[in-house]
Amino acid sequence: MPGTRREIDLYRRRLLAAGAAAGAAGLSPAARAQGAAAAAKPLPPFASFKDADRLIVHSASGIETKREAFGTSGITDTDILFVRNNINPPDASITANPDAWQVEFDGVTTPRKMSVADLKRLGLASVAMVLQCSGNGRGFFGHKASGSQWKVGAAGNTLWSGVPVKAVVAELGGVRGGMRYMTSTGGETIPPGIDPKTVVMERSVPWTAMEGALLAWELNGEPIPLAHGGPLRLVIPGYYGVNNVKYVQRVAFTEEETGAAIQSSGYRVRPIGQKGTPGQPSMWEMNLKSFVTHPAGNAPLRAGATQVHGVAWSGESPVSAVEVSLDGGKSWRAARFFGPDMGRHAWRQFVLPVRLGAGSYEITSRAIAEDGEVQPELRVENERAYAHNGWRDHAVKVTVA
Amino acid sequence: MPGTRREIDLYRRRLLAAGAAAGAAGLSPAARAQGAAAAAKPLPPFASFKDADRLIVHSASGIETKREAFGTSGITDTDILFVRNNINPPDASITANPDAWQVEFDGVTTPRKMSVADLKRLGLASVAMVLQCSGNGRGFFGHKASGSQWKVGAAGNTLWSGVPVKAVVAELGGVRGGMRYMTSTGGETIPPGIDPKTVVMERSVPWTAMEGALLAWELNGEPIPLAHGGPLRLVIPGYYGVNNVKYVQRVAFTEEETGAAIQSSGYRVRPIGQKGTPGQPSMWEMNLKSFVTHPAGNAPLRAGATQVHGVAWSGESPVSAVEVSLDGGKSWRAARFFGPDMGRHAWRQFVLPVRLGAGSYEITSRAIAEDGEVQPELRVENERAYAHNGWRDHAVKVTVA
After folding, report:
1. ipTM of the assembly?
2. Span B289-400: which CATH code?
3. What region, left, alpha or beta, does residue A389 occupy, with left being phi > 0 and alpha being psi -120 to 50 degrees?
4. Is the whole-model pTM more than 0.95?
5. Do A351 and B218 lie within an 8 Å CB cutoff?
């Protein structure tokens, strides 16, 4: 299948072979400063219900969960879940009567429009899954890629419920022959005088991704708020956030990927300085990743026993183990999973009890997948600073007194 | 083991044999009216953060989730989780610095006090579990038992994290010989001039319940709010709410059950009109239960396809299947589980797609446990209206136009 994580991994290996990923593995002081300065910004009106103290507001369209805010319950509460919008959300009035929202289906035997009320009759499913922005970890890169300088918190583990896309497709007579992509369109208003293709939120994924996809009307037990794509959002377990189209108004099975800029040139992995093109890997399945959430480096640590904990997930082969290092990767110890296993698209929580004497520590984690893959040490340098899963940059520096 | 659900079941069978449970199986109009009138009361200050529109406020110490508010994500958001206090909660200032809260341990080899900060060093676990008031379903009884007239919503599926009690016990050298109970004490202020034994929140459970118990500081991803027992609550997966002692300030392993009224005479299952005594079954493990959350009977239903869904759980043998009836129990159809399986103490969500023509329906569900037990049709009449799991009273009457 073109453009999957495997392609990104091939890209990674090419880069590594060329030595392009060597050096510059440390934190960017500029990015750190930018993060700190951004923390003082107010929440935008559509996200005013959120808990500002536990968030970093990069901008009105980029709001990050603080590392220390994730807690240990397994699910990321909506009050602290990150927000990322590519263009302004529609008017809040669209969430007043969620059941009335209409979505159009095409590329099926009998194309038609359906309301959310119609969809609620067709089927019901619920999934726990990681939602993560493609650029999560951008703040660790050194080349000043534009966009929110996320560290770890443009990700969360969330519960969605809605109708399985495949149940809707079955109702509409199945996918038409020859279709290779599921192409979904968001309901944002295109500003007048702008070529829609340059800004429309329209994403294509391999059509087989419909297997686990939901058209969801509920997030964490409540109707989806506007900030997270309500009244209806396409969620594709295992895929980066951008593919989870908010305010979804059209789902079409298509022969080709959409020509929208966000697909054809946006969210493409390519070398620094290059423009995005359709031939480059697209941000589809999420790679293998973990990070430590405690210690978070935000508070002094007393000597003695400490529970080092964090989260691990993968969009492909499931996570089977996590190791923790206290010395910046020189040595590793096996952590243990704790809490409910919410399924292969959720994150697992891990913990390692340690005893820390006075001194300096560089604490990080690496996930290991069922297929044997190990979370890599280094980021893959790329123009838009996507897909960062290198364990070195994600380390927390801690001083124990 | 004395006083477990098995004893309550024996009690049930005795009553059934005596014919005491026959008749009066319908809804109590008085109780229904009481519920409706109570809905207009305001939220008390310590629960002011909650979503009043999705709750029924019986009193400042009894707040219920509406049946239609549970949604389909699997976890009950803290904003809609029921509240039940037996006496007034402590001052809100105790949650200002959770790590400073102290809890005393006794009945172990080396008794001592520990702060929450100390506990956080000793271990970490997280559990998804149903929290349910012993009196949930009281509003369906016909004999006007005192207390909140709960229907279905004095229950929720919640995520807790904290330290395993057994990790603390191990740190303190183990439980002393001869101890048969784990006896825990809440931190509420005893009003002056009152014999503490008459009001203290002190509960004993079989000491083996420590196996799955946590001393929890986090609920659904956030520090436990005062309304739910923060800064520290004892949670015992599978046990009725009252045993999950809030603001816990002492955990002792004891030879005998506490003499506190809430243990010796309170939360005892006995015939209507009788006083509570230590010999009667205590409200410990929860029985096998399910109820439908949609349709909820709160909105008109259009003819055609509908997804009937609900929740099912048990404090003992895990739920293995759920059946749904549309005709008040004359016929049953197998429902299907959906969403994440969060472990044996969580509730499972079930769904049955149906086609409903115009007419009247009485929709209900019954859970079946791994050990073959089937959720019963009728409630067990008892003085305090506890432990209601009869499927008939929990039915929803629906008219389809």
Report:
1. 0.90
2. 2.60.40.650
3. alpha
4. no
5. no
